[in-house]
TrEMBL record:
It is found in: Cytoplasm. The keyword Methyltransferase applies. Keywords: Cytoplasm, Methyltransferase, Transferase. The keyword Methyltransferase applies. One of its GO terms (biological process) is methylation. It catalyses: L-lysyl-[protein] + 3 S-adenosyl-L-methionine = N(6),N(6),N(6)-trimethyl-L-lysyl-[protein] + 3 S-adenosyl-L-homocysteine + 3 H(+). InterPro entries: DNA_methylase_N6_adenine_CS, Efm5/EEF1AKMT1, Mlase_EEF1AKMT1/ZCCHC4, SAM-dependent_MTases_sf. It comes from Alaudala cheleensis (Asian short-toed lark). One of its GO terms (molecular function) is nucleic acid binding. Transmembrane segments: none annotated. This is EFMT1 methyltransferase. Pfam families: N6-adenineMlase.
């Protein structure tokens, strides 16, 4: 019998880099279409990248979290989305609303969002631009990319640096104790859903009286 498995070509790192470059350019072209009336902020305008451990929320969940963030931030409020791009995209759809938003994200495809995009690597939690002042956001929504205490602990440093107080954390149900330990947040009744089902049960956690209960 033939062993086909051996013949599967492995992409070289150069090929992968070229592919990423191509996707980035494609993304920027997509971004340019916006001036012709396309909505660059719609969910799915940037596809999730599983290699970066990205999993988009369902439309309904993203809307619900965006609404909660707007209410929590208050009039003229500032919202930071840390590794939560689908909530950011939903917030951007609320055009003309009275709030501002930043996205801190490892995936440079989001640089199409201009000055609101801040490159973020949780391994360097406080490696942030100087103009990002401490405690300058009314609420921080964060979805750490990995279900590990190390990832949560480092992301927590970023969250605590950015927020004036309010935190909305989305992570696995298994992280309940660590979330309480590192951020003082408690699990809400609201169950976030993803556009593709994840194996791990996902939950939201807050440290203020939210509309998610």
């Amino acid at each position: 019998k033939m062993d086909d498995d051996d013949d599967i070509p492995q992409l070289s790192s150069q090929t992968l880099a070229a592919l990423q470059e191509f996707y980035l350019e494609q993304q920027q072209r997509e971004g340019m279409k916006t001036s012709q009336g396309f909505n660059q902020y719609s969910i799915g305008s940037i596809e999730e990248d599983w290699q970066l451990s990205q999993f988009w929320y369902s439309d309904e969940t993203a809307s619900c979290l965006a609404k909660e963030a707007i209410l929590a931030a208050g009039k003229g409020g500032r919202i930071a989305c840390v590794s939560a791009p689908s909530v950011y995209q939903k917030l951007k759809e609320q055009d003309g609303e009275d709030f501002s938003v930043c996205i801190l994200e490892y995936d440079r495809r989001f640089s199409v969002y201009g000055e609101e995009f801040i490159f973020y690597d949780y391994n360097h939690p406080l490696d942030l631009p100087e103009n990002l002042l401490p405690h300058s956001f009314d609420i921080v929504i964060a979805d750490p990319p990995y279900l590990s205490e190390e990832c949560l602990q480092k992301t927590a440093e970023t969250i605590k640096y950015l927020t004036k107080g309010k935190i909305l954390l989305c992570t696995g149900a298994v992280m309940e104790q660590q979330a309480s330990k590192h951020l003082g947040v408690k699990m809400c009744k609201f169950i976030p859903k993803h556009s593709r089902n994840l194996a791990n049960e996902f939950r939201c956690y807050v440290n203020y009286a939210s509309g998610l209960d």
